[in-house]
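Tutorial, part two.
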Amino acid sequence: MADAKQDKLEKLWKLQRAYISQLPERLSVIHKSWSAVCKYSGEVEALRDLSRQVHNLAGSAGTFGFAQLSEQSRKLEQLLTRLSNINDLGKEELDAITHALEGIDFLVEKGPDSEQQLLPDHEAVAIEMAARERLLYVVEDDALVAKDIAAQLKHFGYEVVVFSNATQAIGGIKEYVPLAMIIDLQLPEESLEGADLAEKFRSFSDRDIPLLFISARDDWDARLAAVRSGGDAYFTKPVDFGTLLDRLDLLTCLREIESYRVLVVEDMEILAEHYVWTLREAGMQAEFITNPSELLEKVAEFKPELILMDIYMPGCSGLEAAQVLRHKAELLSIPIVYLSTESDPQQQLTAMEQGADDFLQKPISDYHLVNLVRIRIERFRKLRMYMHRDGLTGLFNHTTIKLHLESEIKRTLRQQTSLVLAMLDIDNFKAVNDNYGHPAGDNAIIGMARLLLQRFRKSDIVGRYGGDEFVVILPDTTIQSARDILEDVRKHFSEIVHTHQGEKFSCTSSIGIACTPPHMDTSSLIHTADDALLQAKRKGRNRVVIIDHL
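Running the prediction step on this input gives:
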C-alpha cells in the first residue's frame, strides 16, 4: 500500500515538474503575442491568439499547484475578452494589461503555491470504487434454516460463514469484517438478542456494513428493535430468497460495474494527461486527443460514454467540434462537458446551446472532476438502459442482443477466432405462471438473469431474447468450455428455491449451443442454437445440447 501511494505521488510530482519546466516557454509565447498585438494595430487575429494563450494558462495553472497564477491569468483573460481590437486600448487598459503581465511574470518566478497534494482525493475515490469481497456472515441458531440460506446464497457466488450464536459471531467479526450480515432477530441467548448483536457489530467496524434481519416475528416491537439497532432490511420467515438477493445487491452494490469510458479533448497535452491520469486513478478508462480533427475516428474506436472538451482550441473550437458530433444521429446522446475558464453565465449558456450538457470552469479539483463525470455517465447509462435493456432483468433486449451478435460475428471473421452462442429457456414456464402466478414467474426469470450475469465474463454478452428465453454470446470461447460453464448454470439454476406465498418451488432449464465455425452468419447461428434448444426439450428437458456441424 505504501509503495502504491509513493508511486502515485511520484506521478503527480512528475507531471508538476514537467508543467513547471514548460512555463518559461509559455510565458515567452504570451509576451511575443502581446508584442504582436501592439505592433500590428487593429489585428484581431493577434488579439485572439493572445487570449487563447492566456486562457490555457488560466485553465491549467491551478491544476498543477499555481492557484494564484491561475487567478491572475483569468483576470487578464477577462480584460482581453472585453476588447474587440487593439484600437479599444486606452492608457487605462494598456496599464492594466501591463500590470497583469508583470503579475504573471512574478508568480511564475515565485513557483507553485504548494506541492501537489491531490492524493487524498484519489484515495477517497479509490476506496469508494474498490471492489468488495463476497463474504457474508449468517447468524442463525436453526441449523436447517442456516444451511438453506447458505446454500441459496452460494448459488450466486457469495461466500457464507454461519454462526449459531452471538458469541461465535462476535469472534468472527473480530477476525474479519464481512461484506454484510444476515442475523436472526431471536437468538438462543435471549429475546431480540440479534438486535443487541447488531449494535455490538457496529462498534467493531468503522465501515458501514449492511445488516439484514430475519425473524419469525412480524410485530411492531421486533421491527422497531431492528431499526434501532441499525438494520437495513427485515425479512419474515420463510425467507423469500429472490427478495433477499435483490436487497443484498442494492445494499452492497456488489454487481461489478463496467468502468466508465471518458474521452478528453484538450490541446494542452500535459493538462490532458493530468485529467486522464486522474480519471484512471478513479478506476475509469480514459484517453485523450489534442487535435479535434481526430475526434470522429477516436469516438468510433473508443466509444466514450462522456467527452470532456476544452472550448478554446486552435483550428477548431470546442463549440464547432460538438456540433460536428451532433450531426451524427448515433452520437446525439453522448454527454459532452465543456472545460473552460469562461465565467460569464450567458457565454456558458450559449456554449451549451451548441450541443453540450454541462460546463465546468477551470481549474477544477480532481475530486470534483471525478464525481461529476461519474454522475453524468450514470445518467447516460440509465437513459441508454431504457433503450437497450429489458425492463424486468436489466439484460440486453432482443434488438440489442442481435446487434451485438452481428458485431461479434464480424470481429470473429476479421480476427479468425471462435464464437459460441447459447440459447436457454425455463422448462414448463407456463405451468409456473399457472400454478403460482405471474409475479412468481417474474422472480424465476430474474433469478436466471442474476445467475447468468454472475457466471459469465465481462466480455460475454447476456440478453433476454423474449419471455423466459435468454441468449448468451461467448466470444473467443471453445465449444467445450462453453458447455462446461452452461452445465454449471443449468445445475445451479435447478437448485435455486423460489418462494410464493410461503410455498417453495424450483425450476429447471434447457440449453442449446451453436458456434462459429461452421455457422458464419447471424441467421444461421441463431437458427442452429434454437434447433439445439428444441432438441434439449424433446430429449426430456433440463439438459444442454450442442450442434457444432452444418
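The longest strand covers residues 419-426. In part three we will examine how such features are distributed along the chain.
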